[in-house]
Amino acid sequence: MSPEELLFMGFFSIYIPVGVLFRYLSPQAKKGTALSLGLLITIGTCGIHTLHSLCTVLGTWLLIRVNWRKAPPLSLGWTFLYLIFFRTGTWIGLPPPELFPNIIQLLLTLKMVSLAYEVRSYHFEKEKEVSSFSKSPMIGRLSHEPSLYDIISYSYYYVGLMNGIFIRYQTYVDWLEQTDPLSLPCKVPCLSRLKFVLVYAALALGVDFLFPVSYVRTDDFLEHNFFFRFFYMVAVCFAVRMKFYFAWHGAEAGCITAGLGCYPKGAESKPGCGPTVQYSPEPGALVEYDFRTIQNIDCYNTEFCVKVRQAIRYWNMTMQWWLHQYIYSSAPFRAYTLRVGWTMLVSAYWHGLDAGYYLSFLTISVCIAAELSMESCVRARLGAEGQKMFDWVHWFLKMRTYDYMCMGFILLNASDMLHYWSSIYFLIHVVAFVCIAAGRLMGGGKKDRTREEREK
């Protein structure tokens, strides 16, 4: 394992027992201690690059203070433009950012944009209250506008620093203000996340050792036959998925022991969002809790769901909510596939400037268009047995699509990526475009927009 991966393991192994201790602290002590520990980790891993994250925070705070009405689009522009400076600072002699500063900067970008939207919603609801003389029942609304200290605390609290899990500011506030955190049922959910982490780690290390990705970049790789080159991709990307399953389950366990994102099941929480309905249990009633708010991966459905657009929802789930809420919903297009393409383009930019991200993410939108075309023109005309067979083929192609796309995340460089894709004759692209063309010829050009919107 790389030194960075080992350090990640160290963080997660510390976060889990430390989280238990935080449940004994008062709200103010929890807030100050979580901030202090987060700043210690940030400065220790990022050094001078800590200034990048601080500039992002201060810039967002200033935008909110100056013009809260326009703060959401301005904060989106500010944080995304700052990502360019963050990634290209070497052009003017700044030291290149490494893994940990990049992770913190990416998560901070999501937090600051979401915070600006939450503050604007707070002010809008306050204005409604003044005009209607009644308190708004809005779900998850802020009780006050956050101060600079509040924003810095939210930005650097330790458990949400570099675990890849996005939560809204209100979820952070709810965590601080939990009335009886020691009573929360954290043990069973934590163990359910941890019971497979060693299996995921062993599978990742074993397959990575047998199928090193560096071999793909060599000329010797091309001397093997097509089936070897194709299924090498399958093995490499299997190892990558196992690493993410290991990391995200460990991150979720660290959140759970601290009680972060714990809400009653009746609140119908969503990953990243938190509660979606008002829920007030009857006095004395038994209340069940869940940690859906901080769930970032659904391993089973990622592997075994049938459709590409389904798998997207089960992977990096908290960020998927952010993308849908702030990017997809305001996309400058009406067509479903174009809105997905726009969202994938923004996601690629958020991940980095390497060509591999853009080629991979835009491939997803092409594959979604292909599967929609085949569903409306082929699957809809089949009987029960035919649809079952169709779904098996669809599942196989879905998994190969994610393997194909994953190579872009691994290789990153455009020449390396195109070198590999050409070695398997751009097979997934060919299949996708053939499916789209076949759908058009069979009269499937017009999609059922209502059905598509239900599956967002």
UniProtKB/TrEMBL annotation:
It catalyses: a 1-acyl-sn-glycero-3-phospho-(1D-myo-inositol) + an acyl-CoA = a 1,2-diacyl-sn-glycero-3-phospho-(1D-myo-inositol) + CoA; a 1-acyl-sn-glycero-3-phospho-(1D-myo-inositol) + (5Z,8Z,11Z,14Z)-eicosatetraenoyl-CoA = a 1-acyl-2-(5Z,8Z,11Z,14Z-eicosatetraenoyl)-sn-glycero-3-phospho-(1D-myo-inositol) + CoA; (5Z,8Z,11Z,14Z)-eicosatetraenoyl-CoA + 1-hexadecanoyl-sn-glycero-3-phosphocholine = 1-hexadecanoyl-2-(5Z,8Z,11Z,14Z-eicosatetraenoyl)-sn-glycero-3-phosphocholine + CoA; 1-octadecanoyl-sn-glycero-3-phospho-(1D-myo-inositol) + (5Z,8Z,11Z,14Z)-eicosatetraenoyl-CoA = 1-octadecanoyl-2-(5Z,8Z,11Z,14Z-eicosatetraenoyl)-sn-glycero-3-phospho-(1D-myo-inositol) + CoA. Pfam families: MBOAT. It comes from the Eukaryota. GO terms for molecular function: lysophospholipid acyltransferase activity. It is a multi-pass membrane protein. GO terms for biological process: lipid modification; phosphatidylinositol biosynthetic process. It is found in: Endoplasmic reticulum membrane. Pathway: Lipid metabolism; phospholipid metabolism; Phospholipid metabolism. The keyword Transferase applies. GO terms for cellular component: endoplasmic reticulum membrane; mitochondria-associated endoplasmic reticulum membrane contact site. The keyword Cell membrane does not apply. The chain crosses the membrane at residues 6-25, 37-64, 76-94, 197-215, 227-246, 333-350, 420-441. Signal peptide: none annotated. Keywords: Acyltransferase, Endoplasmic reticulum, Membrane, Transferase, Transmembrane, Transmembrane helix. Belongs to the membrane-bound acyltransferase family. This is Leukocyte receptor cluster member 4. The gene is LOC108264277.
